[in-house]
Amino acid sequence: MNSTNQDNESLAQLGAAIRRLRARSGKTLEQVAEATGSNKGTLSKIESGKQGVSLETLNRIAQALRVTIVTIFNEMWEPTSTLEIPAPKMYRPVPVYGPIQIDADGCVINAVVSLQSEGAVDYPAKGSKTYALRAKGESMAPRVRAGEFIVVEPDSPAQPGDDVVIDYNEDRTIVKQLLYERDGELTLGAINGWSKPITVSFDEVHSIQRIVAILPPGAFVPRKDEEST
């Protein structure tokens, strides 16, 4: 095999790896394009192995998919015969509430007051109760930026390592990473990694809702005023 064929094969493997990781993240080409400052056509060519990609662009793609460049390279060499082809995902509007502001410790400063959503984001939600929260401020950066949307699925069981929204102790709400449960207590870590883990009694917890995605500001679709139609 000559060097040209090897280069083409590497581009195809890299593109396929990016496509698989994007499919797992639940993001569309448009969403990744906006997050990386690229366009849909360029990303489509990269995923098809028809166009090379600079290290800088690859790093932006990795950040948009919430992975590292190393993860992408490792994905390139996964045996394709053992990989499952994901089924087509059905996107639907998910109501957006907020904005919510969260302090450095992960505590929600301003709770959602209005029960009427301000719009929606498209996401392949698994449950009918799925909703999204608009983030305000940079206290959760770089994990969550101001204006991004935190997609929450109350019906999806949370596992250790998941980011979660927890209601506990007289209607207090926090956004944390679920580390582990032991002896009737939950140990929770900071999403941004800046503050120390905390422990709360499981008896005080009213609900644990799993965060399934972080979507960019461009995913938002404003609510149409029914009175003006």
Q: Mind explaining what this structure looks like?
A:
This is Phage repressor protein C, contains Cro/C1-type HTH and peptisase s24 domains. The structure is a single chain. This protein is α+β, with helices and mostly antiparallel strands. The protein contains five helices and ten strands; from the N terminus they run αααααββββββββββ. Strand 7 (185-189) and strand 8 (198-201) form a beta hairpin. Helix 1 (3-25) crosses helix 5 and helix 2 crosses helix 4 (55-64). It is globular. Mean pLDDT is 81; it is low at 1-6.
Compact summary:
Residues 1-6 have low confidence and may be disordered. This protein is of the alpha+beta class and 229 residues long. It has helices at 3-25, 29-36, 40-47, 55-64, 69-76, and strands spanning 92-101, 119-123, 131-136, 149-153, 163-168, 172-182, 185-189, 198-201, 205-215, 220-222.
